[in-house]
Amino acid sequence: MSPVLAFLGRRLLGAFVALFVASIVIFAALNILPGDPASVILGRNATPQAHAVLTKRMQLDRPATTRYVDWLTGFVHGDLGVSAVSLAQGQHDTVWQQISGPLKNSAILAAIAAFFMIPLSIGLGVIGPIYPGKPIDHAISVLSLGAIALPEFVTGSLLIGVFFVALDWLPPVAIVPPGGNPLDNPSQLVLPVLTLLFASLAAGVRMVRAGMTEVLQTEYVQTARLNGVAERRVLSRYALRNALAPSVQVLAQNLQWLIGGIIITESVFAYPGIGTTLVNAVQNRDVTVVQSVAMLIAVVYVVLNLLADLVVMLLVPKLREPV
Amino acid sequence: MTDRQDLDRPPGNDILDGRFSRGGLLRGAAALGIGMSPLLAAACGGGSSSSTAASSSVGAPRRGGQLKLGFVGGGTAETVDPFIGVTPIDEGRIQNLYDPMVIVNPDLTTSPGLALEWNPNSDATVYEVKLRDGVTFHNGKSFGADDVIYSIQQMSKPANFGSYPFVSGIDVANMKAINKHLVRIPLKAPDGDLAANFTYYNTWMIPAGTTDFKHPIGTGPFAFESFTPGQQSVFKKNPNYWQTGKPYVDSLMITSITDPTARLNALLAGTIDGMAQLPFQEAKAHQATGDINVLVAPSPQAMMFYMDTQKAPFSDNRVRQAFRLIADRPALVEGAISGFGTVGNDTVGKGLPYYDTSLPQRVQDIDKAKSLLKAAGQSNLKVEFQTSDIFPGFVESATLFAQQAKAAGVTVNLKQEPANSYYNPSLLYLKMAFAETQWPMLSLKYFYLQALSTGAPYNETHFKSAAFNTALANAIGELDKTKAQDYWNQVQQIQYDQGGYLQWTNADWVDAVSKKVQGLKPHAAGALGNYLFMDAWLSA
User: Fold this and answer.
1) DSSP 8-state class, residue B130
2) Is the pTM of this model over 0.90?
3) What is the tens place of the pLDDT at every residue in A76-119?
4) Could you tell me which of B276, B235, B316, B340 has the C-alpha nearest to residue B517?
5) Are B413 and A27 in contact (CB under 8 A)?
6) A178, B226: Cβ pair inside 8 Å?
7) For testing the chain B interface, which of A45, A91, A187, A283 should be mutated: the one with the most B CBs within 10 Å?
8) Could you give the residue ranges of the DSSP H alpha helices within B290-438?
9) Nearest CA to B66 among B268, B220, B270?
10) Which residues of B touch A171 (CB under 8 A)?
11) How far apart are CA B283 and CA B33, in angstroms?
C-alpha cells in the first residue's frame, strides 16, 4: 500500500474514533448538566403536573442509553432530531429547520474571514523574517501579540468604538432577516469580519514568522544563496514551502479558533448565526439542539485537521516516501 | 378590576389624550426598565410597570412606516402561543396579535376589552360575561362566546403553564354560551373579582378551533405575517381593528437581540427604533446626553429578599422583623438599581387595587433590630444569603445588605448561585432559607395565591397561617369593595407583621426609543409603554 493511503487510512480511523468519543462526551455532559429542559422552560411555572407533561412530550422519560443510540443513529443518517423545546411546546420543529438558516449565516461569515485570514497570515508572517529587526517586523510582532491578548468581545467593542461611535462609518450590528442573505448588506459584515480576523490572525502570523526565521537560517537556504539563486526564488521555492509545513497545522487550528470566536462575535454584533443559536439552546437546555450542533462542530474540527494533514503531505515530499 | 358600569369606549383614547394619571401610587423617579436576562424573564413571566412617554407628540399622529423593536431574545423557545409565553419578547408579540378581555390602563385601573361587563350572582360563584360586539379576528371570523369558551378550555390544560393558574378556579366543563355575546362562567369557589384574572397576556383570546400557532389568528391591532423564533417577527397592521384608527404604523418588526450593548448599538445606529430593558448605567448616561428617549415606568414589580419562615433562625419572627429593620431601603434602591425604583414596604402591589396604603413605611432602625435579635437569642447571628446574577440588582442589593447588617452585629455571608439553578425547583428554588426574588405584579390575588396561601406553588417563604388563609379566602370571595378592602388589609397586615418577605423596591421598567418614535406613554403594567405599539407612530 502506498504510504499516502496508509497514512490517510490511519488518520480516518483516528477521526472516527475521536468523533465517537466526542459523541459520548457530549451526550453525557448534557445529561449531567444541572436543570432539565422541562424545568427551564417552565421556570417559575414548574408545577409537578406541568413538568410531567413536558417531560413526556420531550421523551425524556426514556432511558439515557436508548436516547443516545437513537440520537447517534439519526445523526449518522443526517437526521439531527427534533428540538426538545419545540416538543415541550407541543410542536415538532426539527433541529435542522432551526439551525439551517443560522448555519448558513455563520458559514458565510467564517468563509469571508478565512478568505482573508490565510493569505494575510502567510503574508504578514513572511515579511518579518525578510526584514528582521526592522520597524515593520516590530510593528507586526507587537500588533499580533496585542491581538492575541484581546478576547473577541473586547476587540469587537473597540472596533465599534472607533468605526461607529467615533467615526460613524460602519454599522455596529449585523442583523439579517430570517431567510435573508447577509451579503445583501455587506457593510454590516465589515466589523464582525475584522473582529474575527484580529483574534485568529495573530497566532498564524507568529507561527509563520517563527517557521520562516528558522528555515532562513538552515544550511540549504544558505547554500542556495551562495549558489547565486535569486533571493525571490530562495524565499518562495526553498524557504516558504518548508516553513509552511508546520504552519499548516496552526492555520487549521486558527480556522477552528475562528469557529469558537464566531460564537462570541455573533453575540457582540447580534448576528443571527449558529453561535447565537447554540448559546440560546444552552440557556433553554434544548438538549437535542446542543447535542447536534456540538457534534457538527466536532465534525468540522476533525475534517479541518484531516485536510491540514493532507496539505502537509502535499507540501513536504519527504512524507510521501516509504519510511 | 373591571366594573360593570364600564362603558363601551375604547380605553386607548385615554392614553392618546394623555389624560391618564399615575396618581400618588407611582410617585418616584422616572427610571428605565429593569433589564432581565432571558432566562430570568422567562422564569418570571412579564411584569407590570408604567412607562414614561419618551416623546411629546407634536401634532396629529403620522401614519405609515415600520416600527422596529429589539428585545432580549429567548432563542427557539420564543412563542406566539399566548398560553405558554413567558418572556418580555413573547409578551410584546402576544399583546399585539391578540386582545384581552380586560384592558389595564397606564395607572393600573382597568377598562373593558373584549368583555364589556362581568355580572356575578349574589355569592360570586357564577359570572355572566357580556362580550363586545363587532370585533373580528384577522381571518374575518367574528368574535363571540364560543371563542371565549374555547380559549378558557385551552388555558385550563396543565401543559399551558402560563395560563393555567389564572383559570384553575373556573368550572370549565360547565361554561355555557347563553347567546353569541353572553357567556356563563361558573366557579369552583367564590371570586369577587374574576375580571382581574383576565388582564394578563397569558389569558388573551384566540379563535375557537385553533390547534397550533404556526399562523396565529387574533383580534389584535397587528396581524401575523412571519415569525422565526430566536430571530425576528413581522406583523402587519390590522385594518379592521375595533379600536378605530389604530394602529398608526403599517407594520411591526420585533427582533431578538440578547446582548444589551448590541441592542443599544442597534438603537443608536437606527437599525431599530426602540429597545426593551436598557441597562441602568446606560440609562443614566443617555438621560444626560438626550440622544435617545429613555422611557422610565414606575411599576409595582417587586424585588425582594425572602426568609424561609420554617427554617431557623428565620422561623423566629423577631429575626425576620429585625432583618426588615436592618435594611436601608433608599440606599438599596440607589446603590443596587441606580435609583430606578421606589422603596418597598414588605407588602407587594403598590398601586394595584386593594393595596393597603395605611401601613407605615418601614425604615432602617438598627437599635430596634439589635434588641429584637437579642430577645431572640441571636446576637452575633451568622447567616448565609444565596444570591444570583439572574436579575440586575440582585447581587448588588445582597452585597449592600450584607454591609448594612454589620451595624446590627449580623454577619451575612454571600453565596452566588448559578442563574440557571436559582429558579429551578429541582435544584435550588424553594429550598433556600435566605435568598432573593422578583415578582411581576398583576393583582394582589395573583401574588398571594401563587406565593403565600397554603399549598401555593411558589411559596418561597413557606408561610403557613390558618388566619391568613381565611382572610385571603374572604378577600378574594367578597363582592362588596369596602368589605373586600377590609379583608385585604387584614391579609397585608399579617404579612407586614409576620411575613418572610423583605421587599426593598418596586422597580421601574427602563426602556429606550429613538427620537422619531411618538405616542408610547408611561405604563405601570409593562415595558415599552406596556407594548401598546398600536399607539406608536413615527415622526418624519
Assistant:
1) E
2) no
3) 999 998 888 888 788 888 999 999 999 999 999 999 998 998 88
4) B276
5) no
6) yes
7) A45
8) 317-326, 329-337, 366-375, 394-406, 419-422
9) B270
10) 269, 271
11) 9
